[in-house]
Amino acid sequence: MKKLLTILSSLTITATSSVAVVACNQPKEEVVEYTPSEKKYPTSSTYQSSRTELVDEATIIDGIKKDAEHKKDSGNVSVYFLKRNAAFGGVQSLLSIANTLQDGGEVYYSLSQNIAPGDANGEDSIAYHKLTRKYASKFHFQITNNNSTYIVDEDLQGIFTAVGDKKVDLYLEDFQLFDAADRDVSIVEQLLPYMPKINTITITTDGTAQLDFERRSQVWLSSIPEDYKTYLTQVWSDLIAGKTPTIDSKYYFDLDKILPTLTLKNVKQEKFANAWAASARIYVDSLEQPYTWNQVSTGLASAFSRLTEENQKLFKEIYGIDNVTLSAGDYIIHTGNLIKDNHVTLLNVEAENVKATHEANPNKKIIYKPHPREDSQYYEQLITKIAGFVEEDVEEVKEWFSIARAQTPIEVFALTGVYRSSEDKNFEYSVTATSTTVLGLYEADAKDDIVKYVFADAAQENHLRAMYGASNDGVIDWRKSNLTASV
């Protein structure tokens, strides 16, 4: 089945007789107009609502609602399902959890069996037990009994039994929607029996992938008739009110598509669905703040700074970087591509990039930060490859080249101040331009520390130019590209 398309930005839409036209800053894409004979969509007149009127603000095109505008009941329980080894998603979740626990909240955190102990979000990489030790009665950690990459009824039954009568603020990854759809499973339909106990649904995103989801989603939204949007809105109106609508199950997949954008609330404003991301929209659209992903803050850096000094130290301990010590000097942090995706080519690409950086900065030490999901055999091989390229012994290379803890995302090093300039140390970044690293460093207020954006090839650079725009004042300063001269 075609993957679900998720909308992760607010939209400006004007209606015509047969198609809604999306006004946005995304690359233009041809949209095929809807022809009634092509598909029979249900309409608002065919849906028998169990309520006499629609929820105020019940529209599927309202865009994302800031979490900070919604005051959660103090007795709610936050429930996280981490089903995919997405390192950036893990950072978002743990920062949110740390703030929730600090405020006296209760958290259930479920990690899928498919995430191995040594993975970026695995038990050997992140010291979850330290949260359990400090917040013994408030932080509940578990490994699911299945390898599913999306929530299944077994997961939900266990959690909702454990929380009892308490309302739940539910956090799900956007990839769960897509993986479920590939297996003809609707996440919304899975949640139906539990909707009366769900206060909010938050969709966490794993960085730059959401930009592509956003673009394709806008195309999908513009291709469906207005009355069908009204129909979906009416269904959601009942769902948010805790009712169970009677509709053909195939339409639940379209409800999944719009899940992250909904701002539907019942009259008591008890629940709504929202999206959560360190989004590029703050840079593309010049917004003052990114759409917030946590009820207490806006942005990763703000969330970390809100933690007490004790909990900031705990956060570093959880990620295993509390004892990182570096001598005085100048450093360049080089973030790597995921070599295992194409190790024959990318080992050479990474070695060439490190060589070029070293030759241009012979008096600076280079710290190589592998991708969090990298296989250790490849970054261990990289030192030997670099030695051959620069014609030095491995031990000579180690005098100016070292490798950082792979599993910890580079954003965490920057957020926590481990790789930030001080009186006796200076840090610059040479970053993989296509990764979440760029957005993460912006969130950490480290944009000015980026001295080079590294692309594997021209195709990567052209893709990002189309997505972000060609301005040097936007997301990427193209004058700092490793492939192009000043523009």
UniProtKB/TrEMBL annotation:
Transmembrane segments: none annotated. Keywords: Signal. This is Lipoprotein. Residues 1-20 form the signal peptide. InterPro entries: Lipoprotein_mollicutes-type_CS (IPR054816).
